């Protein structure tokens, strides 16, 4: 009987087994402050100790280029794979994205140099405490004031104030988005449609100053992974293209430059069956006592009806605890998931319950999130496939 009982009610995953991001020494939030410190920007600290300063620095961020996925595809990305030993200052080690490993959160961490608990974008969607509504922090819907939501200056702004030539080269579609304004503004934004044009212009902007900080971005690898999966021919074709772009940029670097190729997260493919996809909209146990479901499939924020917080935590642990790290808000904060400190304004944006995937599983919501529930490739949690990102280096 005791064996059956243990089988029917397995112990949930211990929270201290979650691999925490390396906030303060090797996370995306540490990258630009380290580079800016090398450029002499006041107030910036070089917390990634392995990196060496350069007068001209370019960051090429490829959306969705996870460390594990890159290493698994040497034939598709021969140039990038040849640089694996250069990662993180020649140690051959990756960076960690930060939690959750998702675009809005990671880009805010990159641009502000702050972990999620400070910059305040703690997921794909999060509750706005002022309205009680879920806010999509990638698409910025419903609208809220960008500067109230994220009040800190970006590293680009601080660099420009210090006399560093700062520029961002990306798709014209991102020129005036709220996410760009709160995470990547400062200096000059230059929109170019083609990847080749972005690489050429990034190299040109890098050479335009004696001290330069340039950022450029490519999104389509992530899009291919979401739609078709990282095992697809489409994704591999995009990786081949990214490899050529990185080499094109590297070959045009002006003197005294350092190029860093990195990413905002990796990705995992999740099978389309009931063992791997738990449908919140079809599961009365998961819905009980829940007012709002936020985050995304592998990194959920669960906002409980007032008074039901403990019951929701108990049920989610019982139902999902073998395959997800399930924590209360205070447990997740104490464990350091969102960084070493949580700003007061950010605290209520985090779910009463936070669920981070351990296995190749998702919590989908087919009625309220039909598009997201149909994605093949997903990300958000703290597994190595999602969390680890490269920091490949080319210097002149």
Describe this structure in words.
The protein has 396 residues and is of the alpha/beta class. It is 33% helix and 19% strand. Strand 3 and strand 4 (134-136) form a beta hairpin. Helix 12 (220-228) runs antiparallel to helix 13.
Characterize the quaternary organization of these chains: single chain
How many runs of DSSP E, i.e. beta strands? 18
Main sheet?
Answer: 6 strands, mixed
The average pLDDT score comes to: 96
The low-confidence parts are: 1-9
Q: Within the largest sheet, what's the order of strands? A: 6-5-7-1-8-18
**Residues in helix, %:** 25-40%
Number of helices: 18
**Which class of secondary structure composition applies to the elements?**
alpha/beta
Instruction: State the shape.
Output: globular
End-to-end C-alpha gap: 68 Å
What Rg is obtained from the alpha carbons, in whole angstroms?
21 Å
Strand content: 15-25%
Q: Which terms would index this structure?
A:
19% strand
Kindly summarize this structure in a few lines:
With 396 residues, the chain is an alpha/beta fold. It has helices spanning 2-8, 31-38, 67-71, 78-82, 87-90, 103-112, 116-119, 146-149, 155-161, 178-183, 195-207, 220-228, 233-250, 284-287, 309-320, 329-335, 370-373, 384-387; strands at residues 56-62, 95-96, 125-127, 134-136, 165-170, 188-191, 212-218, 257-262, 268-269, 277-279, 290-296, 299-304, 324-328, 353-357, 362-364, 377-378, 388-389, 392-395.
